[in-house]
Amino acid sequence: MKKGTIATVAMLSISLFATSAFCDTKKGEKVDGKAEFEKHCAACHPNGGNVSNPQKTLSKAVMAKNGVKSQKDIIAKMRNPGPGMTKFDAKTVPDKEAKAIADYILKTFK
Ligand code: HEC
Fold first, then answer.
1. What pLDDT score does 8 carry?
2. Cα dihedral across residues 11, 16, 17, 23: positive or negative
3. Is the CB of 83 under 6 A from ligand 1?
């Protein structure tokens, strides 16, 4: 009986430990910029294009011509977009996600 109790306690603490370890990894998880881009932006910017304004695609060269050159500039566009684009505030897309999306755009659409 005593042995059984010890085994139960041991198993319980192992599973508790496993659960907290799982939570920690989740918290530190990297944001998937591609997935976030597809969720929030791809409807209007499929493959980095622009369905309503072909002069304002997300290609690096085109953005540079329009003064959008860095991660910060892209985030500024999300927070304060031009005509026809949805506004993404920090509640909809937190900074961490916004950065991941911006990095994804800069390295994906040349
Ligand atoms: C409802 C459609 C729509 C959605 C959704 C949308 N955009 Fe846009 N986006 C536009 C339009 C329209 C423009 C051009 C606005 C203008 O004239 O300044 C634009 C322009 C931009 C530009 C400037 C491009 C350039 O060449 O000057 C960036 C950067 C951008 N969007 C990023 C994003 C990101 C990142 C997301 C997702 C978080 C997103 N957009 C979601 C419609 C959209």
1. 65
2. positive
3. yes
Residues sharing a CB contact under 8 Å with residue 89, sequence separation 6 or more, in sequence order: 79
State the angle between helix axes of 95-108 and 71-79 in degrees (0 to 180), rounded to the nearest 10: 120
Domain ranges of the chain: 1-30, 31-108
Is it the case that residue 20 has pLDDT exceeding 60?
no
Ligand 1 neighbour 98 (Cβ under 6 A): no
CATH class of 31-108: mainly alpha
Crossing angle between the packed helical segments 95-108 and 33-40, to the nearest 10 degrees = 100
- Where would I find the H helices in 1-110? 2-27, 33-40, 60-65, 71-79, 95-108
Q: How many Å apart are CA 15 and CA 33, to the nearest integer?
A: 32
Q: How far is the CA of 28 from the centre of ligand 1 (A)?
A: 29
User: Is 90 exceeded by the pLDDT of residue 106?
Assistant: yes
For 103, the token pair is 């990095």
Amino acid identity, position 100: A
Instruction: State the pLDDT at residue 24.
Output: 44
